[in-house]
Each structure stands twice: as C-alpha cells, then as structure tokens.
Design goal:
The protein has twelve helices and ten strands. It is globular and about 65 Å long.
Length: 307
C-alpha cells in the first residue's frame, strides 16, 4: 500500500507508525487533500477545522467509531473503510480466544515459562470443553457468521444469536442457528458469548452489568469487536467475583491502555488488538484503501463509503 501511495501520489507517510495527536491531525486537515487514518487515530469533532482542505478520509480498518462521522459530513469530507477483507482473520481470532480461555492456555504458557510447572497430574489446570457447547453471537454480520461457521462445523457447537434485524436465510438454517429477540436471552443460553457488533455511541456499553448478570457462572465472554461495547468496570466486577468463568479480549475501551485489574486476572486472556493482524489481511486492507481513494479521485462513488 505505502509503495503504491508514494508512486502514484505526493504522499507523506507516518514512518514512526505512532497515532497522530489532535494537533497533528488538525494540521493534516489544513495541509493535505487526503488523510488515511488508522483505527488508533482519534478524529473527534475538535480536529475538523472550519474550512478544511482535506476532502477524503480513507480509514485503514473496518471500524470507524474513532471518527466523528457527523463532523465529517458537515465539513463535506467523504469517509470510507475496509470491510470484508478482515472477516476470516477476525473470526479465527474469536475462536482462538475461546480455546485459550476455556483451556487455560495463557495461564499454562505463563506457568511453564516461569519455571513453575511441576509435571503432569490429573488435577492440573483443568479447563472447560469447547466442542458441543453453545455459542451465543451478538451481531450476526459477516464476522459473526464466519465465527458461527467455524464453531458449528469445526467444533459441533450449537449457535444462538441476537441481531437487530431479522436474519433468516439458507446459511443460518444450515448452521441450525436460532435467533432470539433479546441479548439477555442469548447470554442466558450460551456457554460462550462472542461479540461482533460495531462500536460507537449506539452500542456503547451494550454489554453492561445487567446483561452480564444474565450469563451462567460457567460461561465466557469473547470480544473481538470494539472495546467500548463492553462496560469494562462491570466486566471486571463479574470476573473478580467469579460470576462468569472468564473472558477473552482483543479490544479495549481506551487502547492501548488496559486496566491493571484485567491484567492481574488469571481467568482472562488479553491480546493487543490482533484481529486483522496477518500479512494477507493487512495487505488487502491497504489495497481497499487505495481502491476507495482512486474511485474518489476519479469522481466515482467509492465501494466502501460510510459518509
């Protein structure tokens, strides 16, 4: 992606790969025609100057809750994202987290590396089985469906789900997936609850103390969606009091900051936002950005326009 941008445009790269500050973004809005932010660059309304030079924001990532979309619209700035290409890798990671937290893989590796493993014994680090259990999915979009396929056909899991709109098609019938009317019903039925809903104001803290209270004590929460969909304080309380069995988290509310209490808990697996982190996916994301940019510059409607 970067090679193409340099060859085709007068591109200035963020070679340090560090999120731009608010002031740096404000300068970019005044000095450039196009800005290509990542999901770690925060673009609240405050960074949009009254008469920005920039006309296009090509987001490197599928989530865009870090961008004030209303402010972009008011400024006449087009916004695109990179959907589809990271579906499989994010679904793979959701399954990875399920296996890690249920089988206590993170705990086991830490114990071995620390030289604390005393050898095999019948009661050592006994976890929970994944195969044949019930997976509850919140948000049956592309990634939710990909996760459901892996769970059903790879591990023989039963699938229940919540989605705002009614979902009824041949793929879901082949999965034997049951749609419930409320998130609470899904969470009460599931051994694993996997979140695949978008972030932003509409879904902020959609998983709160009340909904966590509906989960079974032996159930696990998995989040590869966005950190702000979970009330982290409520989750910490539920985990600390062992009201749920554990959690597998790839995203956090204030990344890269992660609450110390979460980091201290043995029944939590924590990953540093690795959902799309494969060579193939990151390359495909970059090419999506280029595709959308070229469409914009040629006066065509970009395929992945969100604003």
């Amino acid at each position: 992606m970067e090679k193409i941008l340099v060859e085709r445009f007068r591109a200035q790269l963020n070679v340090a790969d560090i999120p731009l500050s608010e002031h740096e973004l404000m300068d970019a809005f005044r000095d450039f025609d196009v800005v290509l932010p990542t999901v770690s660059d925060r673009l609240p309304a405050a960074v949009f100057p009254p008469s920005p030079r920039v006309r296009f924001l090509g987001n490197f990532g599928v989530g865009f809750n870090h961008i004030d979309i209303d402010a972009a619209r008011q400024a006449g700035i087009m916004v695109t994202n990179t959907p589809g290409v990271l579906t499989d890798c994010t679904a793979d990671l959701a399954i990875t987290l399920m296996l890690m937290v249920a089988r206590r893989a993170g705990e086991g590796e830490r114990q071995l590396r620390d030289g604390e493993w005393a050898g095999w014994c019948p009661t050592h680090m006994v976890g929970r089985k994944v195969s044949g259990k019930t997976l509850g999915i919140v948000g049956m979009g592309r990634i939710g469906r990909a996760t459901a396929r892996r769970a059903r056909f790879g591990f023989g899991m039963n699938i229940v789900f919540y989605n705002r709109s009614l979902q009824h098609d041949e793929e879901l019938r082949s999965l034997g997936a049951l749609q419930f009317d409320t998130i609470e019903e899904v969470m009460a039925q599931a051994d694993f609850v996997s979140l695949h809903c978008p972030g932003g104001a509409e879904n902020k803290h959609i998983i709160n103390a009340g909904r966590l209270a509906t989960m079974r004590q032996e159930a696990f929460l998995i989040n590869t969606a966005r950190g702000d969909v979970v009330d982290e304080a409520a989750l910490i309380d539920a985990l600390g009091e062992r009201r749920i069995a554990g959690a597998g988290l790839d995203v956090f509310a204030s990344e890269p900051s992660v609450p110390d209490k979460l980091k201290s808990m043995s029944n939590v697996v924590l990953l540093p936002h690795l959902g799309s982190a494969t060579e193939e996916t990151r390359t495909a994301m970059g090419m999506k950005v280029v595709e959308n940019l070229e469409a914009f510059l040629e006066g065509r409607d970009p395929p992945d326009r969100v604003a």
